[in-house]
């Protein structure tokens, strides 16, 4: 009997060792599986963040910084803005909207101006600095002072079906549609509408267009 008990105990010890090895292998396998899952989850998270950032920048909104004083006092040099790039997918730009568009004469240069003339209209500026739309004076109060330079708008400019006439609010310090180098802005070239000022913080808020 004693010999049999010794054999049984030895067998149980061997069985326990086998079970411990199996559990150890199982724990190691689960540990590797957990690390793999965490790695895959992290990679997916980074991919989602990059995709979301790409979609926001290219289709929804984009940060831009104002350089210069052509839009004083509505916008100031150094203002950081978020440009709304999605609204014009649903409706046409409107008069007095502040838009961002590329300067065609210089790569990676963008202008921010206010829409004054709409497609199909005729725009002209007289010697007194008054703006005429289809022969009638445009009532607006965005210009800081009387315009001294009519530019090419000294004669009537007829806008095409996708063309916009733009001016800076600081009329005597702005290069805009009066300047032949800028000219009228085509709808396809409009990147978006100034939407939100995020810096400086003490002047942060939504941009008023009208």
Strand content range: 15-25%
Overall mean pLDDT: 84
CATH superfamily of the largest domain: Umud Fragment, subunit A
**How many distinct beta strands?**
12
Radius of gyration, whole Å: 33 Å
Poorly predicted runs of 5 or more residues: none
What is the CATH class name of the largest domain? Mainly Beta
Q: Could you give the distance between the termini?
A: 103 Å
Total number of helices: 1
Helix fraction by DSSP (H/I, runs of at least 4): 25-40%
Total count of domains: 2
CATH topology of the largest domain: Umud Fragment, subunit A
Structural class, from secondary structure content?
Answer: alpha+beta
Dominant shape: elongated
Q: What's the helix-strand series?
A: HEEEEEEEEEEEE
CATH architecture label name of the largest domain: Ribbon
Main sheet?
Answer: 8 strands, antiparallel
Give a description of the structure:
The chain has 210 residues and is of the alpha+beta class. It has two domains: 1-62; 66-206, Umud Fragment, subunit A. The chain has one helix at residues 2-60, and strands at residues 61-65, 80-84, 98-102, 110-117, 122-125, 131-133, 136-137, 157-158, 163-167, 185-186, 192-199, 205-206. It is elongated. The termini are far apart. The mean pLDDT is 84.
What's this model, at a glance?
The protein has 210 residues and is α+β, with helices and mostly antiparallel strands. 28% of the residues lie in helices and 24% in strands.
Keywords:
single chain; 210 residues; alpha+beta; Umud Fragment, subunit A; 8-stranded antiparallel β-sheet; 4-stranded antiparallel β-sheet; 1 helix; 24% strand
């Amino acid at each position: 009997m004693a010999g049999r008990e010794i054999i049984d105990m030895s067998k149980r010890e061997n069985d326990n060792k086998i079970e411990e090895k199996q559990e150890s292998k199982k724990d190691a396998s689960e540990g590797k599986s957990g690390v793999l899952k965490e790695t895959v989850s992290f990679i997916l998270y980074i991919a989602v963040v990059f995709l979301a950032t790409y979609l926001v920048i290219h289709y929804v909104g984009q940060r831009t910084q104002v350089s210069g004083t052509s839009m004083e006092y509505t916008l100031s040099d150094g203002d950081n803005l978020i440009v709304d790039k999605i609204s014009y997918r649903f409706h046409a730009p409107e008069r007095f909207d502040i838009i961002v568009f590329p300067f065609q004469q210089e790569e990676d240069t963008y202008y921010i101006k206010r829409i004054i003339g709409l497609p199909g209209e005729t725009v002209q500026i007289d010697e007194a600095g008054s703006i005429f739309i289809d022969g009638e004076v445009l009532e607006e109060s965005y210009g800081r002072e009387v315009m001294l330079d009519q530019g090419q708008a000294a004669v009537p400019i007829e806008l095409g079906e996708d063309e916009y006439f733009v001016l800076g609010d600081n009329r005597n310090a702005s290069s805009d549609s009066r300047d032949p180098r800028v000219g009228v802005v085509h709808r396809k070239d409009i990147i978006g509408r100034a939407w939100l000022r995020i810096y400086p913080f003490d002047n942060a808020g939504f941009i008023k267009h009208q």
